[in-house]
Amino acid sequence: MFWPTINLINMGKEIRKMLVNEKKRYCATLSNDRKRLLLVLEKLLKEDPTLIDRLGKGQSNGRSEDMGKVTKKMAKWKAMAWDPPLGNKPTRGLFHIQCAKLLSPISYDWTDPEVCDDFLSMKLLATPLHFPCYLWLDDGDNYNPRRPLDGLLMNKILICAAFCVLFSPNLVKSISPSTNQVSGARGSTFKRSKGMIGLAKSYNLTWVTPAFIAYIAVVVRHSLTTDATFSEICGGFNYGIYYNKIREYLEAPQFAGRAKVLLDWWNMQLFGSYNMGANADNDDGAGTLDALYAEAEGDPSLTDEETEPQEDEDQLGDD
After folding, report:
1. What is d(CA 162, CA 172) in angstroms, rounded to the nearest whole number?
2. pTM to 2 decimals?
3. Does the pLDDT of residue 178 top 60, yes or no?
4. Considering all CA atoms of the chain, what is the largest pairwise distance in Å, rounded to the nearest integer?
5. Where is this region: Disordered (predicted)?
6. For residue 145, what are the contacts with CB-CB under 8 A and spacing of at least 6?
């Protein structure tokens, strides 16, 4: 059975500081799959007690690099049309009206001055259980509370951040404010003469996962805030819960259809048609082999049964 490395790392971080009794209570709450994961973790730690610390350090370094790139370049993203212009970290968050609106829960009516003032004065708070406006298309301006799935995780700021992380931060400058796409055919970076670049080239990445989308949502939120450094609980906001809730939505069976459409949309925005061959649906119409079989059925001379008599005739002629 396969377990994602990130799950092992996260569990290792979770239990490494637990006392014996605390760990027993924790283990009693685990599902069967999580218990098997714990067994794998314990065997790995027996072989190398420093494994989780070393992997966690590498994970943290990569995350810091991603957040640094997005935080630094975000102000220059034309697609966001910052008004007022976006400054450095201390001027963001609730000190910047556009950042504040993006960070506010989608359930808050930003057109209501009282709601706006209460959020800016922190009488109303953002929580990881209430998704913010920046996750929705058009910053949630056309949000329909009766259809909350519409436009979720389709905001241009997420695509800009993903480009910044996967490719080159400078590519984001060419994303149009109105289309979410890089100039060129179907938003595909790979149609450029240089081909793939950045992490996408290094790791041969041609599609995204629910975990990546949730990760980008975390990176964007932190970049919009005034928080100078990242931690799992930062400024009173629990990013661990937030990340898990987004993944829970994307991986829930009841949302499987929506999630597939969303992942396809992200892949097209980021990779264009580059990965269509690798991910083509085997049931998508008749292929070349179907045509070959059809020709064989319509022409008896192509079948083995019809060629055998010809071979017999040749043999008789030789006699």
Report:
1. 9
2. 0.66
3. no
4. 104
5. 296-319
6. 107
